[in-house]
Amino acid sequence: MARCDDLAMHSDEPGRLTRRYGTPALRAAQDAVAAWMEAAGMGVRRDAVGNLLGRYHGSDPAAGTLLLGSHLDSVRDAGRYDGPLGVLVGLAAVEHLHARGERLPFAIELVAFADEEGLRFGTAYLGSGVFTGALDAASLALADDAGVTLADAIRAFGGEPDALAAARRDGADLLAYLEVHIEQGPTLEARNLPVGVVTAIAGRSGLQVTFAGEAGHAGTVAMPLRRDALCAAAEFVLAAEETARSLPGLVATVGQIAAEPGAGNVIPGLVRLSLDVRHADDAARDDALRRLRARTDEIAAHRRVVATWELVNDNPAIACEPALAATLARAVEQTGHHTHRLPSGAGHDGVMLTHLCPVAMLFVRCAGGVSHNPAESVTAEDVAVAIETVDRCLLLLATAPSSP
Ligand SMILES: [Zn+2]
After folding, report:
1. Ligand 1 centroid to 30 CA: how many Å?
2. Which residues place a Cβ less than 5 A from the ion ligand 1?
């Protein structure tokens, strides 16, 4: 908890926590974590994009490597636990081994990803994308608000933009990736549980929906003659809400809406809006999109407007590996707590890591489900349960090395 407080002091902005990729604040946070890693008996290095890696070697070189980790960057005006908590819980587990002079058969590699949130360049999973070889080289030309390209930012951070493809971590020796993260939702709090085992990271569809009607004079066009695009969009927003409420586990959000021409005395002729739909089960998400598409066509026909529906991005759900999740659940039981399984509505580095190895996640209860906000809060007692769970999970994996 004290280390989370320490890392929160390293910010790009005075008075609030904002830690973007490649900044002096991120470097300072990494330097602090690197020193703790070294003190815990780990060999420390940085890869070509600046991910920080600490390695605690195992007793059997043939037993492979278990990855623990999370990210050290943040959103703007962030809380202090989203990301750093997962790195520091992993660190604590290694410290416990080191203090006992104990080696597990497998090595542990603790990864502090340099950019997960994508605040500076709009590139979610930049750190884990390089680590897994999934980053598109075209992203290097992206520029931040100040016009600095990603390639230059990588160079300034001590990395090598030309070596990113070669920096991909070979997955051959990897047993699994295990990440601890705050829940960012209210489920564990509602069930009065300190931790939960993640079943899947929800799939997500992002769409742009457009309604084209006819602009006209707000004073002269009689109501029955209107083809008001914004009224159609209003029906659509409520239909999206209704669809989501009728399907358990589904969430749907219209977060952006723009009406044209956008004058108080003109009937809106054109409306563009965003739609974000998520579910842990891809078939359920597809079904919801089909239903909502049919509703959209009904609304358009009824209001004599033209609806168009464009899929902007479509990411499948990522299942956590069942055997590994079961081992994690057993570790939770050993701490004396009931195991609750829950999906993650938010994306995490584990999405990228599934390209390399099995993935499991442990969620820690956070107050009010609040995240991406300075009010983000966890208790020392819950964090202690998370650390003990990871400790016990490592021992379970060591006694059954084939289980991941
Ligand atoms: Zn996070």
Report:
1. 16
2. 82-83
